[in-house]
Amino acid sequence: MSNYVEMWKDLGMDLDTHDLLCQVLPTAFGDVYLSQQNRPEGMGFWDFVVSEIHGIRPAELIEAQKNGQKVFGTFCVYVPDEVVIAANGIVTGLCGGSQFWVPGGEKVLPKSTCPLIKASVGARLDRTCPFFRIADMYVGETTCDGKKKAWEILAQDVPMYIMDIPQMKREKDIQKWAEEIEAFAKVVEDFTGNKITVEKLNEAIKTINEKRKAMARVFNATKGKVIPISGKDRLLMTQIAFFDDPTRCAQMCNKLADELDQRVKDGVSVFPEGTKRILLTGTPMAIPNWKLHHIIETSGGAVVCEEMCTGTRYFENLVDECQTTLEGQFRALSERYMKNNCACFTPNTGRIDDIVRLAREYQVDGVIDVNLKFCCLYDTEGYTVEKALKEAGIPVLGIETDYTDTDAEQLRTRIGAFIEILG
Fold first, then answer.
1. Cβ-contact 280, 205 below 8 angstroms
2. How far apart are CA 400 and CA 379, in angstroms?
3. 312/342 Cα distance (integer angstroms)
4. Would you say 149 and 137 are in contact if contact means Cβ atoms under 8 Å apart?
5. How confident is the model over 236-269, as pLDDT tens digits?
6. Tens of pLDDT along 110-130?
7. N- or C-end of the chain: fewer Cβ atoms within 10 A?
C-alpha cells in the first residue's frame, strides 16, 4: 500500500504509527486466511480488498468527495443506508476490530469499556485509519451507554449525528423509529444539498435489497451437509460489505454464490466429513477480528452461520419496495430495521427465536455465544440464550473475550473440549 502515502499525508494520518499496522496486518491475514486449503476462487476479490484495505476504497471515497458527494461513517446496522444513498451520499462502516486501536481509545475512555468502542474511538483520535479521517459526518445511535458517551467525545472532533433507537418494539416504537428516519433524512438532505425523492429512495431501497439478497445466497450455501466455504471467508465477505460500494458488493457476492452453488452440486467441501457445525451468536466481529473463527475452524469445527450484526442481522429481511410516498417508505424502513434483534431491546424474545431457528436451518451441532468483554447487554442476555438453547436440546458454550491473543490458548482448549463433546 506504499502508493497511497501521499493520500494518507493529505488525510493528516500518523504515518509512523500507521506503518506498524501495515506491517502486522498482512502477516495476520496470511496466517488466518491464506493458510486455508481449497478456498473458493471467488474469494480472490476479498483477498485483494484486504491487501489494499487502506488504499483502494479510501481513494474511491476521496474521488467521490471531489465530485461533490458526502461520505457518512456509521457504526451500527440500524442506520439506514438507503437514506444516505437516496441523497447521493456514500456510507462506510467505522467499527474497529483490532487491538491496535484500543490503547488510543483508552486515552479518553475507561478501560472497562468494550473493545469495539475503544478501538473505534482510538482509530479516529490516533489518526491511524483512513476511513475515520475521510468521513464527512459520523452517524451514531443509542444502542448502549458506552457508545452514547463515546459519541460525545467523537463529536468534539468531527460532525456527529445521533439516532435515538427505541428500547422496545411496540407499535408506537416502530412509529417512533420511522420518525427518527424521517428526521435523519432531513439532516442528510441539508448536509448533502440533495433532495430525497420517492423515486430516489425507492431506487436506493432496491439497491440495498439486492445486496442483502446476494449475501443471503452465500449464507444459504452452508445450510446443507456440504460446506463449500469456510466461516472465516464468509465473515470476511460480510465485514467488507460494510465498506464496499453496494452494487459492486452484490455483484461479487452473487458471483461467489454461483461458485458455491456449483461446489455444493459437485460435493466440494472445505471441511472433512463429520466436522462439527457451529453457529456463532453474540457481539459483532468488526474487521480484522478473525480470532474466534480461526480457533474454531482449526479445532475441528466449522462456523456455518453467525447470528450477529456481522452475520444474518445485516441482510435478513427486505424493505418493502411498493411504497409510493416518503411517509410510507420511512415506515417500511422502520419495520425492516426494527426486525434486527439487538440485545439493546427489552424484551428481546425475537433474538432467542432467531438463534433457535437458525440453529435448525443450518443443522448445527452446537452454538457458541460470544461476548466482548465489558459488553453488559450481550453478557446479561447470555443467560436467556443458554437457557433457551438447552431447553431446545442444542448444546451451547458461552465465551467472553477481547481483541488480544492472551486468551487464545485457553479458548482453544475450551472450544476443542466443546467440539469433542459434540462428537
1. no
2. 8
3. 12
4. no
5. 999 999 999 999 999 999 999 999 999 999 999 9
6. 999 999 999 999 999 999 999
7. C
> How many residues in the chain?
423
pTM exceeds 0.90 for this model: yes
Residue from 295, 338, 290 nearest 310 by CA: 290
- Rounded to 5 degrees, φ, ψ at 354 are -60, -45
Q: What is the end-to-end Cα distance of the chain in Å, rounded?
A: 45
Q: How far apart are CA 285 and CA 310, in angstroms?
A: 6
Q: What is the residue whose three cell numbers read 482509530?
A: 123
Single-letter residue type at 184: F
Q: Are 401 and 370 in contact (CB under 8 A)?
A: yes
